[in-house]
Amino acid sequence: MSAAIQQRPAVRAGGTPSVVRLLVLATFVVILNETILINAIPRLMDSLRISEQSAQWVSTAFMLTMAAVIPVTGWFLQRVTTRQAYAIAMGVFLTGTALSAVAPSFEVLLAGRIVQAAGTAVMMPLLMTTLMIVVPEHDRGRVMGNVTLAISVAPALGPAVSGLILQVGSWRLLFVVVLPIAAVVTVLGLRKVDNISEPQVSSIDWLSVAVAALGFGGLVYGLSLFGEADGRVGLGIGIVIAGVAAIAVFVIRQLTLQRTGVPLMDLRTLGHRTYGLSLALMSIGFLAMLGSMILLPLYLQNLRGLSPLQTGLLVMPGGLAMGLLGPAVGKVFDRFGSRPLVLPGSIGMVLALGGFTQVSMTMPYWQVLVLHALLMVSLAATFTPVFTLGMGALPPHLYSHGSSMLGTLQQVAAAFGTALVVTVMSARTRHLAADGVAAVPAQLSGMKLAFGVVAALALVTIIFAAKLPRRIASPA
């Protein structure tokens, strides 16, 4: 990344360094919170007397904050020491967790989630930067595989962990349980983490940061208003248009900075065809994953009457499969290339989402489990090869920009997906209810339509997958 993180060579060979283990543990704890509230959405709606559109923002705001902060982390990590970065990131996360635990209203809870996300966004780049410095090059593949496994399992376990906790207490307990664990991890980390680079003076274009946040945030927020009462649709359209305009300004600003300075995101990465295809495929995959993770608890709890624990256990096999298949997928990719993985994975994703369009009040639970597992396994077969192909298609000087853009758009796509499915479901439900349809059939029809919209978007991934090369040659 910067000169600051290149000053020290790898300092340890063999086993995984303890500093990396601690950073992995800390990152696991904070990333778990990205999805831990998904299973609690029905409980939040009842406790705080809010609608689906409002409740989904406890996840959407988290993701959008991550998207806004991730591009800034490269600059931030250059200006502070490793210990300072760790202390600040975990301190911010602990503050957000405590605020969420005692939140007297939905607005305060939302603020707490935003603060949580700001700390979370720093941990992944800090972990990856530290790993690249302290782990010898010949050992990085093994360590990176273990890191990827841990980080993949975290969001997958979120609904299951929350289901268990919600079985014995209120949604506030989700934060109360996390708080002491995160505090212990923070103290242990500060005792073990050493400074592996010196701070460097660097600059950042804050206008780009502000315009990007307004653009992506406005786009998703405007979309979420479409599902509200008719009087807010016009406001939603206006905010969406403003968001698109802000994104256009962001693009123009980056193109200008590419010629005269240092862009926040170097858009020349998009000039590499394989990277562009990979970026689009990964974004749609995250949209589908988070969209389904929002809809399933609403279906299983609100319509089928399952408890949060039962819901979490039902979706846990698929989530665990996604994380645990990571190393095996990597080995298959190394041996056979992307084609045996990405194309079947894309097709499996469409089939699973298409199957969810047939949800009903009598669908056997084993079918729900199988469809969810198929979706998660398909995503596992897709993400690792696509990420490797996309980053491998870039020249080394664009690695940091490619990684930053990929991380940012993944979060934006996930936030967009949650807002999209809830908006489609709510709009359809409200329309049918106005025509005299009973509440349960109306909501079920809304869920089917929402799954159908996501399945239609996922069809595009098959085209992208077919265009990806089996392997990537070293860029010129």
UniProtKB/TrEMBL annotation:
Keyword vocabulary terms for this entry: Antibiotic resistance, Cell membrane, Membrane, Transmembrane, Transmembrane helix, Transport
One function term, GO molecular function aspect: transmembrane transporter activity
Subcellular location: Cell membrane
GO-annotated cellular components: plasma membrane
Entry's transmembrane regions: 20-42, 54-77, 84-102, 114-135, 147-165, 171-191, 203-227, 233-253, 274-300, 312-329, 341-359, 365-394, 406-427, 447-466
SUPFAM superfamilies, per the entry: MFS general substrate transporter
Domain of life: Bacteria
GO BP terms: response to antibiotic
Membrane topology value: Multi-pass membrane protein
Major facilitator superfamily (MFS) profile domain location: 19-473
Record has rRNA-binding as a keyword: no
Pfam annotation, one family: MFS_1
Transport found in the keyword field: yes
PANTHER family from the UniProt entry: MAJOR FACILITATOR SUPERFAMILY MULTIDRUG TRANSPORTER MFSC (PTHR42718)
Similarity remark: Belongs to the major facilitator superfamily. EmrB family.
Protein name, UniProt field: Multidrug efflux MFS transporter
